Amino acid sequence: MEPTCPYHIDRTGADVHAEAARIRANGPVSQVVLPGDVLAWSIVGYDEALQALADSRFSKDPRKHWTAFANGEIGQDFPLIGWALMDNMTTAYGPDHSRLRRLTAKAFTMRRVEAMRSKVEAVAQTLLDELAQVPAGEVIDLKARFAHPFPSRVICDLFGVPAHQRAAMLRGGELNVDTTLTPEEVAENIEQWHTMMHGFVADKRRSPGDDLTTDLLAAQEEDGGRLSDSELVGTLFLLLATGTEPVMNLIVNAAHVLLSQPEQLARARSGAVSWAQVIEETLRVEAPVAHLPFRFPVEDVKVGDTVIPKGDPVLIGFAGIGRDPVKHGPTAARFDPERADKSHLSFGHGLYRCIGAPLAMLEMELALPALFERFPDLELAVASDAVEPQGTFIMNGRKELPVRLTGRR
Known about the structure:
Structural class: alpha+beta
Oligomer: single chain
Organism: Catellatospora methionotrophica
Helix content: 40-55%
Number of helices: 20
Shape: globular
GO biological process, one term: antibiotic biosynthetic process
Keywords: Heme, Iron, Metal-binding, Monooxygenase, Oxidoreductase
């Protein structure tokens, strides 16, 4: 593939895998141009990403470590400004990051997550029961009817979000990863999101419940004010968004690839390969997050053979990392659950590794086999290559997944 350096990112996300390959043509670490003509770096090599993700010299705090942003060179019209304005553990560095992470990580330990198994399973079964009422052969959007409501109900139950507020509160996170929005739409979303989240927190202060939001509020009081209202709201936004969007994409991507390759689905359903193998290979070959902003080196850092200057924005190209031919050979782009090495970094690595990974894995472990057990003859309602991409270069998902519920148990 002919290199084009620096590569201009396609804000529509028309083909995130082809884009990752084009970026890789310039090397595992190379310059890209973001919407708004902002220069950045993209890391799509597995070894290079592993190095960068483990390096404490990479900050995620734009206020302190993104030189152009701190100098006022990045205006409010930057299409990805929402990623710079967030105030939570993923935009904090050093002691601030450790403090914020401690407050939330204990909610997602393996023990706490395992205790949620019966509740998560009940959500999945309720949604499958609803799908079972659909007339046989009718075409539905599996993303809208199962893949999205499943993780969103789980995470909203966990944080005590009332049913009537859920769609609106989650909408802010969905729009934040939409890289086709205009600067005006981005600004409007940020304003509405802040207003809604602050209102939700105020309601919880007046009427506490048995949920994680109430626990965070209690921690704020006990912490002597070290957790600001802005950090609290930012943390809620982060956990609601990351608790929904990536899991939704994982379910959609796994279902899509299995329905596109009936022989692999048959092997999974027969037990020839385990569902755990299917999930891990989906995470590798169809990472739910494609190209995540931002990191900023606090000094010049050499990653692989490339020096990334201090203060430059860096994106981690998870969709490209999982398909790196240097790591996974010439068949890197092929879905193969029996592949010996299914190494991926789709949950991140190091200090900023996703704290919700245990919950995401539990959800996948329960949802995917249950879906195909209930609907053993589930089939795509359109050609596999006619399934449209999500429409963003940050996430790797599908706009919808039309299927027919032709058989059921």
